[in-house]
Design brief:
21 helices; six-stranded mixed β-sheet; globular; 455 residues; Helicase, Ruva Protein, domain 3; two-stranded antiparallel sheet
Length: 455
């Protein structure tokens, strides 16, 4: 549950205890900041996290990133660089009682030796609010430096009080070049790596493993290690072949990823099959995810998102149906509720597609972020008080229901984005009708404005 490494303790003498050999990924864990591959935006020269660590300015933080991006490694290196006690803590296996024990020991170590404690909490998003709150006063007082690791968005999974006391650092998936560097290092290392076995590994083999690993260094090294063992031996030297790599990757999935079964690859396959209007493939990937134990409500959320992002107003009924499917599963549970998810999947695959809403939202979002935040035009402001009316709030506003055809050409956008046309409907499904309505309205407004401008 809790594993402590006190860097001030003397080393244990004698031979190491016998047990299962450590995996390659664990043996090759970086021992210095310079050995870390990737995350240059945090650890490159003069970058924020590297400067903080090397200057001894330790602070509580949340490391948010995908599996195998280096969260645990970074936490342990912080303790090494700062000469601090390092306590690893699992949110899956530990509770408030263990938290109190760790905090008490951190307080004693600080009083006795002046030693600071870095408490690394893996999967901190799995702690409930009460467990997270138990850290608050001790983080505030500096009794310990909290380093939480999460694969989930901390703004949703970590309570705001704790989040406000921590800095959030986003770790990126490693790219294929980074993974190749890490694997080459393992192949060249005789002490911790695979150099003693002298396997024959081509660049194409490393690229294949890097692609399978999907940004995860741990996966890349584990697949490499197993592929070396499975590769054919000739003259005392093993060759890492494509067959060995794919077999190693398959075994890893069965051993370590039973719940998700390549979670991100599968959800991507489902999403793209829906976008390609392929109902057979979409249903196949859906069932693959369900059979592998994927959270049904996660799948339902992705279907709801697809309905807005890739179908939108081409078929407004898609959003209603996906929400109904979510409610149906919530009401029926497994296995009956899964038919509702299948029904929604087939409907989405065959619905007309449009990402016009998604594109329009992104265009508006860019303008909101990049342009000045102009005040709302006076004529479309509410004027509930006398002072506001005297200041011109609502002056000249034309009530559309009092206008012919419930139309008015008054300008509702602020000055810097005036004339922008964000929404561009497609000619597919119901959106074709919306496109006709929009084109008619834009044409009418342009004509009315032009007539007003004529002397």
């Amino acid at each position: 549950m809790v594993a402590e490494v006190d860097l001030f303790d003397p080393p244990v003498s004698g031979p190491p205890a016998r047990g299962a050999p450590r995996p390659l990924a664990d043996r090759m864990r970086p021992r210095t900041l310079d050995e870390v591959v990737g995350q240059e935006h945090l650890l490159g020269p003069q970058r924020v996290l590297r400067v903080a660590l090397e200057s001894g300015e330790m602070h509580s933080m949340i490391l948010w990133g995908p599996p195998g991006s280096g969260k645990t490694t970074l936490a342990s290196l912080m303790a090494h660089v700062a000469g601090a006690r390092f306590v690893a803590f699992s949110a899956v296996l530990s509770g408030v009682k263990e938290i109190r024990e760790v905090i008490a020991e951190a307080a004693r170590a600080r009083a006795r030796q002046g030693a600071r404690t870095i408490l690394f909490v893996d999967e901190i998003h799995r702690f409930n609010r009460a467990q997270q709150d138990a850290f608050l006063p001790h983080v505030e007082k500096g009794t310990l430096v909290l380093v939480g690791a999460t694969t989930e968005n901390p703004s949703f999974e970590v309570n705001s009080a704790l989040l406000s006391r921590c800095r959030v650092y986003v770790l990126h998936p490693l790219d294929e070049a980074d993974l190749s560097v890490i694997m080459r290092r393992a192949l060249d290392d005789a002490e911790r790596g695979l150099a003693a076995q002298a396997p024959l590994v081509t660049g194409d083999a490393l690229r294949l493993i890097a692609g399978i690993a999907n940004g995860d260094a741990r996966t890349a090294l584990n697949v490499l290690e197993l592929a070396v063992k499975l590769g054919p031996a000739e003259g005392g030297q093993r060759t890492v072949t494509e067959t060995a790599i794919r077999e190693a990757a398959q075994r890893r999935t069965l051993l370590y990823d039973k719940a998700g079964e390549e979670h991100y690859n599968l959800i991507s396959a489902l999403h793209k099959s829906l976008r390609d209007s392929d109902p057979d493939a979409a249903l196949y990937w859906l069932v693959r995810m369900l059979e592998s134990g994927e959270d049904r409500l996660y799948v339902a959320r992705r279907l709801v998102r697809f309905a807005s992002e890739d179908i939108g107003n081409a078929d407004p009924g898609a959003l209603a149906l996906t929400l109904a499917a979510r409610d149906a599963y919530d009401f029926l549970g497994t296995p009956e509720g899964e038919l509702a998810l299948a029904q929604a999947t087939l409907y989405l695959a065959l619905a007309p597609k449009s990402n016009a809403t998604y594109v329009a939202y992104g265009a508006v979002q860019a303008d909101v972020r990049e342009r000045p935040a102009e005040p709302v035009p006076l004529h479309i402001r509410n004027a509930p008080t006398r002072l506001m009316r005297e200041l011109g709030y609502g002056a000249g506003y034309r009530y559309a229901h009092d206008e012919p055809g419930t139309r008015t050409e008054q300008e509702d956008l602020p000055e810097t984005v005036r004339g922008r046309e964000y929404y561009r409907p497609t000619d597919r499904g119901f959106e074709a009708e919306l496109g006709r309505r929009l084109a008619d309205w834009r044409r009418w407004r342009a004509e009315r404005r032009a007539s007003r401008e004529q002397p």
